[in-house]
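Students often ask why we bother encoding 3D structure as a string. The short answer is that it lets us treat folding as translation between two languages. Here is a chain of 242 residues written in the first language.
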Amino acid sequence: MKKDLSLLNLVLLGVLTTSVISNQAVLSKTNTVMGIQSSLPSISSKFKKIIGGGAKLSGDLAQDAVKLVFMQGVPEVYGAELNVDFDQVQSSMDVMKQYDPDYGRKPLDLSAEELQRYINIDLKISCEYCCGADSIIFKNGKAACGCAHSQAMRGLTAYLVKNHGSQMTDDQILAELAKWKSRYFPKQMVQKMSTQLKSGKYTPDIASLLLNIKLPKYDGANSGPAPLPSEIQNAPGMVGGC
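And here it is in the second language, the structure alphabet:
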């Protein structure tokens, strides 16, 4: 019996060690993606403390905005099959933009019904921090911007509509685009989230990130400008090339 318990303890110790190493690797990749350098230890530790607390909302407007916007790990449904990861922004962008119907190397041919869904979704999201377009497509479904961010978002829309259209609603697909947009423009999207949480007025991209989430009541809502969390003041304005 004692021999069995010793063996079990060794196995559990091995699992714990592997988990700690994996977590450190993820944090290291996160720092690289966010542009947080080792010369900024205080900012890095504060930001990691916020996101390390999990998705549970605290009622602190600034910290909740970070948690709602900043995504990590492999996306469900399509992440493994496309080999994309929220902690590997540029390489994931390169994968997804291949499927952009206008600019991609592997454009997907959408049926009339699929094309209409594609249009309905992509008219609700823009790449305003890079190319400044009102949405990533025109009303006829053609690309409104050729930057890499919008190519990747259009490519992902086409891929999900084509391959997972029966599993995902338009709102759920839009939420995936918004998650990636948040990784492309972390500073701006956290500020946008905090502003809209405070005002109670939401754009489609921010609203999609709040699907099925019960929000706490935030003190000072509807009074004055929302704060930009100090933890990401030195985060880059843009991740991934235009």
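Translate back mentally: The CA atoms of residues 103 and 151 lie 7 Å apart. Keep this in mind for the problem set.
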